Amino acid sequence: MFNLTRPQIAIGGVSGRAVATTAAIAVLVAVGTLLGPMLIGSADAQEPELYDVSDATAEPDTTILSVQGSATRNLKYNLTVGRFTVSVLRDSVLSAVNVGNTATQAIADAVGTTCSNQAPQNFDINSADTCVSPQGLQTTQIRIYEEYSWTEQGRTSQGFRYENGLSIAVRGTAFAGGLIDMVVKAGGDHVRFDGIDFVASNRARVQDRALLAAIDDANATADSIADHMGYEIVRIVEINPLSTGAFASYRAEETAVAMSDSAEYVPTPVFGGNDTVTATITIIYELRKLPDEE
274: helix, coil or strand? Predict the structure, then answer.
């Protein structure tokens, strides 16, 4: 067994243990001198003075409001687009092409004779007797293919089909019926009427106006709700616009229009009419509760 003891060092006739004890006492006195005021202060802080800070730190009451606004604007058509197909079936490709090209050229000649590229002076867009076509007749597609039918003996060739898709746009809607009559008369039995579409060239501008009106409608509704419930609008959180509008179209069965030279041709009645554009928008607002009146 070992007995471990710390060596004692004598300094100036005083043992090391005595020096250490004296130094420790001096340190405690110094620390007490420094900490005395702090301890007295901490004792005084045990009963702090209370202040009402609720008005400065409380978060205001907020909520979210989702409102949908809508608006409708009238739209007047100012353009008619007619779509036709010259369709010919013959035993040979050459014969089908020749007959089809002849019918197509007859239609082109009729358009060139009846329609003008520029509107005349005092042009009445509601006149059913005036054809104004700035772009004239346009080809949309040409196809030549062999046509088959199925019988008990299997697939049988019916000949070769020539198709020439044509499109023509005219000013206004009043000449829509006259456009159909002009093309069908010129192309004869080889013309298939695919339909007409009425177009409004200012649709985008009218849609923008409807959208702005829908925003005003949503804002007015939000203001009314917030005012009624004692809230104020802080900010807009999200906007989701949605615009819709109908696209009018007059269509016929996709069959050839049969005509004969001796038959009396009855003009085609077409009524263009108007369209409406509806804009719908959803706006999400952040509301804040107003302070109660004293």
Answer: strand
Contacts of residues 211-216 at CB distance under 8 Å and 24 or more positions apart, as own/partner, are 211/71, 211/241, 211/243, 211/279, 211/281, 213/71, 213/73, 213/279, 214/69, 214/70, 214/71, 214/241, 214/279, 214/280, 214/281, 215/69, 215/281, 215/283, 216/69, 216/71
- Sorted by where each starts, the structural domains of the chain and their CATH numbers stand as 77-120+127-201+247-270 (3.30.70.2970)
Residue 216 phi, psi (nearest 5) = -60, -40
**H or E segment and range at residue 129:** none
Q: What is the pLDDT along the chain (294 residues), one digit of tens a residue?
A: 223 233 333 333 444 444 444 444 444 445 455 445 544 444 444 443 433 434 444 355 889 999 999 999 998 888 999 999 999 999 999 999 999 999 999 999 999 999 998 887 777 777 787 899 988 899 999 999 999 998 888 889 999 999 999 999 999 899 999 999 999 999 999 999 999 999 988 889 999 999 999 999 999 999 999 999 999 999 999 999 876 654 444 443 333 444 444 457 788 888 877 888 999 999 999 999 998 776
